[in-house]
Design brief:
The chain has one domain (6-187). The protein is 79% helix and 0% strand. It contains 8 helices and no strands. The radius of gyration is 16 Å and the shape is globular.
């Protein structure tokens, strides 16, 4: 247990929680459910978990093959995170996806849960946090994602549209701060 750093686990968990933004995605999930009928919460959560862990380990090697380092990817990731944060804060939609007939894997597991922002964030986090702490953060988030996916209709009733909008904007500001921190840490500013 001495390899695990609870402060890092908490930080990683909160960063991934903000970037995945499953609570802010409840309206999207409900819309997908209405279009396709049933979403397999277990399948979506497991596929997203495996995709994130795979990318955490293989993503850096993929970057090396194309001649990039983690710092460069982290800076690019900070820009993507910045844009996602601005979407959340301003209520605009720059990244547009179409919903196919089967929504459990695409677009729910990928790219809604484990999308480009999440995968970029994982590699960015790898430059600052221990891998085992990142894995624990991923697992904790996927447990939470699973719970939310199983209870989206109930959560929508509790939070209401106003509550969901406030939550989305608050996590947008957190993401904005994370983007700036990643940019500063990897540029030396």
């Amino acid at each position: 247990m001495e390899n695990f750093n609870y402060n890092q686990i908490l930080s990683v968990t909160m960063i991934l929680f903000a970037i995945i933004d499953i609570l802010g995605s409840i309206p999207v999930v409900i819309s997908l459910r209405n279009k396709v009928g049933h979403i397999q919460s277990e399948k979506a959560s497991i596929v997203a978990l495996l995709l994130m862990i795979f990318f955490l380990f293989i993503g850096e090697e993929m970057l090396k093959i194309i001649g990039l380092d983690i710092s460069s990817f982290a800076i690019a990731g900070s820009v993507v995170i910045f844009i996602i944060a601005m979407e959340m804060i301003l209520g605009i939609n720059l990244f547009k996806e179409e919903a196919p007939e089967s929504a459990s894997i695409v677009p729910l597991a990928f790219p809604l849960i484990a999308g480009s922002g999440t995968l970029t964030t994982l590699l960015s986090l790898k430059s600052e946090y221990a891998t085992q702490n990142i894995i624990v953060g991923i697992i904790l988030n996927m447990i939470f994602v699973y719970i939310v996916l199983k209870n989206t209709i109930y959560l929508e009733k509790i939070l209401g549209k106003t509550g969901l909008n406030i939550m989305r904007k608050a996590f947008g500001i957190i993401l904005l701060a994370i983007a700036i921190k990643l940019f500063r840490n990897n540029t030396g500013l």
